[in-house]
Amino acid sequence: MWVEKYRPGNLEDYRGAKKEKKKLKEWAENWSQGDKSVLLHGQAGTGKTSMAEALAKDLDLELVETNASDVRTKKGLKSELKEATRQASFFGKNKLILVDEVDGMGRADRGGAAELKEIVSESRFPVIMTANDAYDSKIRDLKNMSIVIELGSVHTNSINAHLKEILENEGIEYDDRAVKMIARRAGGQMRSAINDLETVALGRDKLTKEDVKALDQRDSEQEIFDALKIIFKTTSLENARQASDNLDEDADTFMQWIRENVPREYKKSEDTAEAYEWVSKADLFNGRIRKRMSWSFLKYVYEFLTGGVALSKDEKYDGWTKYQYPSMIKKMGSSRASRNRLDSLTKKMGAELHISQREAKNSMPLYREIINSNEETIEKLGLKEKELELIKKF
Ligand SMILES: Nc1ncnc2c1ncn2[C@@H]1O[C@H](COP(=O)(O)OP(=O)(O)OP(=O)(O)O)[C@@H](O)[C@H]1O
Ligand SMILES: [Mg+2]
Fold first, then answer.
1. Among 99, 191, 198, which residue has the most ligand 1 atoms within 8 Å of its CB, making it the best to mutate?
2. Long-range pairs for 196-202 at CB < 8 Å and ≥24 separation?
3. Model-level pTM?
4. Digit-coded pLDDT (tens) for 314-358
5. How far away, in angstroms, is 98 Cα from ligand 2 center?
6. Which residues line ligand 1 at a C-beta cut-off of 6 Å?
7. What is the pLDDT of residues 102-111, one digit of tens each?
């Protein structure tokens, strides 16, 4: 894994965070027993653990790492950590104690936090604690006894530079814009940037913008799957409503996903029927939006598709469901270009056959059959080769 392979070996390799690095280094160099500990906090993947590790390497300290969320029990904390904070290093070095993820101790573990406080304050060696959330009430006391250093999001330029170095090291050529796209979409999290890079670049000779676009596609699919899981599995209106909050998809696409997957999740016919009742209402409102441009209806569309569909079941169905692409989208691909192709085809068919475009769309499987069995139709409708291929995909 590239996140491991390219962990910064020292503070100089550690990108960005100049002030924070300096502050931390000065603290460690001047520390003597009784001085404050450090609480290093910031969102996941911003490089807290890496910074502590890099510091230890720079100052040639023996790093003793404990993870507070692993050694959850008081006993675990006591034995591992107390020992480490009291005994001299086997290697004749000074030590640096890292207690990772102190906010992950578990809610019930206030006792653990109290004990940690005692151990840290009596330590013979400097202690760095890390946390995602410095405002977690569990760790208030730990915070108060520490110098608090925040690692904000990593600057896009720092991420960008780091990604390029990785690519160069791996011997992969790259389009500058492609790398920049990955750096930007990481939202300041170095880890997720490196992971994204590995996903799209590993095994390639060259990284292009197209490769990166595949990531967006993957993300939006993941968002849809997450939303479906909430809607289908919850019986709470509140939860269901929130399911569509993070979606980028338009209402149409979202509706198709729901429509496709209702019967995969709901097994009782009453549940399925009721859910489809809501889908159908959503469709109706969605149509009104288009016809009258009344966007105020949009909230109902989502309300029906989330809350309506969720509450259609008597009780939640156990087990894991494999959600599927809506068949229509799957067949058309989800790009705008292919949607446009379908639109132009159905318009043409509609005009020839005196039916609406929508009707033409719905009857595609029928045309496929007709075309396969009757060559003449092709001529009569004046279809092009590309259009024929499109119909045959249904
Ligand atoms: N500033 C940085 N410069 C270079 N690489 C970095 C930097 N920050 C993070 N990384 C890379 O990102 C990975 C994740 O960083 P790290 O594990 O230190 O994050 P973290 O803040 O401890 O995350 P978590 O809260 O999940 O424990 C590291 O393995 C390293 O490869
Ligand atoms: Mg960490």
1. 191
2. 197/2, 197/163, 197/166, 197/167, 198/1, 198/2, 198/3, 201/167, 201/170, 201/172, 201/174, 202/2
3. 0.66
4. 999 988 888 888 876 565 655 677 778 888 888 888 888 888 888
5. 10
6. 3, 6-8, 14-16, 42, 44-50, 132, 154, 162, 190-191, 194
7. 887 765 566 6
